[in-house]
Amino acid sequence: MQSYTIGQAARLLGVSPDTARRWADAGRVATHRDDSGRRLIDGRDLAAFSVEVGQTPGGEEDDTYTSVRNAFPGIVTAVKLGDVAAQVEIQAGPHRLVSLLTREAVEELGLEVGMQAVARVKSTSVHIDRT
């Protein structure tokens, strides 16, 4: 199973490394140390925690005004395989993305819960909000 450093987890959760470290210190997500002493989070634990964080309203306030980009790096939180089709869920910070694709594509990519992935979105209709 893949493990993530605090910095990698922070990037996937869409928060600062300090926030991820505070969450780990508070016991909100389990960590362990590798041979060099770095704190790591197991992929399955991070996937479950990312779903919890994504369902919690609020989070860190961000006063920047941006147009959303089309690449969403995150962590795979669910893979449902059918005979021909598959459904993959990715938690990218507070965003939950669900993609329907072929079972063959999921198997070729080796997608499984807890691994890092990037959801790329292309749309003919894009809305921009300024808050």
What do these coordinates show?
- The chain has 131 residues and is of the alpha+beta class.
- Helix content is 28%, strand content 31%.
- The protein is built from four helices and seven strands.
- The strands form two sheets. Strands 6-5-4-7 form a four-stranded antiparallel β-sheet.
Layout of helices and strands:
Layout: E1 3-5, H1 6-13, H2 17-25, E2 32-33, E3 39-42, H3 43-55, E4 71-81, E5 85-92, E6 95-102, H4 103-109, E7 116-120
Helix pairs in contact: 1-2
Keywords, please?
globular, single chain, three-stranded antiparallel sheet, 131 residues, 4 helices, alpha+beta, four-stranded antiparallel sheet
Number of helices: 4
| Sheet of most strands | 4 strands, antiparallel
Measure the end-to-end span.
40 Å
Number of strands: 7
The proportion of residues forming helix, as a percent range, comes to: 25-40%
Percent range for β-strand residues? 25-35%
Radius of gyration: 16 Å
How are strands sequenced across the largest beta sheet? 6-5-4-7
Chain-averaged pLDDT = 86
Give the H and E element order: EHHEEHEEEHE
Structural class: alpha+beta
Low-confidence segments:
59-68
Shape: globular
